[in-house]
Every structure is written in C-alpha cells, then in structure tokens.
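Page 47, continued from p. 46.
Same chain as before, 176 aa.
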Amino acid sequence: MTQASKKVAKGELVFTSFLFATSVVVLVDTTNMVESNAVGFVGPKVFAYIVGGLMFFLSALQLILVLRGAKGEPEGIEAGTQSDKANWKSFGIVVLALALYAALIELLGFLIMGPVLYFLVGKAIGVKRNLTLAIVAFVVSVVVFIGFTQGLQLYLPLGFDFLVPTPTETIEDGGW
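Result:
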C-alpha cells in the first residue's frame, strides 16, 4: 500500500466516522424531542428517526467497508491533471434561482416558486428538454408541498395572501 493510498483510506475513515457520530447525535437528540399532540401520528420526530436511522445504518456499513480495505476511486481525473475552468454561467443561474426563491416565496407561494427553482436548477445542470423539465419541476413541487403540509403538518406558504381578506380583530373592553 503506497503512502497516497494510506492517506485516502485515513481521510475516508475520518469522514465516515464523522457521519456515524452525526447519526448518533441525531438519534439521541430525537429521543429528547418534545412531541406535540396536535401533530398526529406522523410528525417531525418520526422523520428525524428515519433520517437518523438511515444515516446510522449507512455510515456503519461504510465504516466496515473502509476498515476492510475498500476505498473510493477518483472518477475521471487522474492525479496531476487539471480540470476545466469553472462554469460561472451555471453557478449564476443557481444563485439567481435561489435569490428569486428567497425573495418571492412568501408573496407567490411554494407552488409557484418551487417549480421555478427546480426548473432553473435543472437548466443550470444542463437539462435540454424544457417541457419535460417544467412538468417534472411542477410534479416534484406538488409532491413536496403535499408531503410537507399534509404528511408532516408543516407550513409552506401558499402565496397571494394579499388577495384573501384577513378577519378583523374585535377587542372587547374588560368592563373594569
């Protein structure tokens, strides 16, 4: 085993150990999480257990593989070769998509800004079929919206709140 391959294995072991420790922290913190009776059966605690459990299982499996000598192989770039220069156009599209999403999510809502975000990120990574990308972006947004609002009982903005009249508050005097 050469010196370079020993460094790779040690780096992979450190990274995988970090993931394993993070999964343990997630699972311990989840056991201490206070549950609300208003949420119902599936709440944030169930989701945290699923994520922590999957992280624990996969990082433990990876730790075993790394300790047995399996290591990742670099993909496509040999040592000493320089990669192409950065793709600033794609980076700019992703930054623009995230900025638009953050600025307009409350005003226009998730069901409009979600597909816009997904579409622009898809264009940035090179998807050529615009109609297919738009349909997939819309379907993914609807699935995410339903999953969060109905499944996890978490709020995602619907948007256009200015069109819905807000109920007026009636303040009653205490009659002192």
